[in-house]
């Protein structure tokens, strides 16, 4: 696995980044309650899409059902909790560390901080609903080195657009 992967910033990407920045400025002008509602819905949608990668079948209209025993719902809410943690605790320019990744992993997997203390020791894969592996992760013996390379890349300043840096980080991680 090459870190960073090869990619090229296109004019289309620059246009989308510009639109996102304009929307961010407009959102910052909104009433705090409206802004919180928009952010919550956006984060919920993002959490649903992230969970869907691993087979979660929930949609936004089924998420509001008052069934706390539903594991798919709890998975999405744990992702939401991790995103809120990032928004409240991490600021632009803060460093990323292995410890922070473990903390976020604990929040997403368990809903609690401090339960992840190391890298996995077995092969992993993501399967589609038919049971076909759509992604096979690198061998456990390579994980620590790859994560360290990813963190070094993150801090290198080679990518000038934070949004693209976040996308590359998400793609690799």
Automatic annotation (TrEMBL):
Q: Which domain of life is it from?
A: Bacteria
Name of the molecule in the record:
Fido domain-containing protein
Check the record and name the Gene3D superfamilies matching this protein.
Answer: Fido-like domain
Q: Which InterPro entries match?
A: Fido-like_dom_sf
Q: Which organism is it from?
A: Candidatus Roizmanbacteria bacterium CG_4_10_14_0_8_um_filter_33_9
């Amino acid at each position: 696995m090459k870190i960073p992967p090869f990619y090229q910033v296109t004019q289309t990407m620059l246009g989308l980044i510009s639109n996102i920045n304009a929307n961010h400025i407009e959102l910052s002008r909104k009433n705090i309650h409206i802004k919180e509602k928009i952010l919550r819905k956006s984060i919920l949608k993002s959490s649903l899409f992230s969970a869907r990668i691993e087979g979660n079948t929930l949609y936004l209209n089924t998420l509001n059902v008052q069934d706390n025993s539903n594991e798919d719902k709890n998975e999405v809410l744990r992702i939401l909790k991790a995103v809120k943690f990032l928004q409240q605790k991490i600021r632009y320019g803060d460093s990323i560390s292995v410890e922070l990744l473990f903390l976020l992993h604990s929040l997403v997997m368990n809903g609690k901080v401090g339960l992840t203390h190391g890298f996995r020791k077995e092969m992993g894969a993501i399967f589609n609903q038919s049971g076909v592996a759509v992604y096979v992760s690198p061998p456990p013996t390579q994980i620590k080195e790859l994560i360290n390379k990813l963190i070094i890349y993150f801090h290198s300043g080679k990518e000038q657009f934070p949004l693209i840096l976040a996308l590359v980080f998400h793609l690799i991680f």
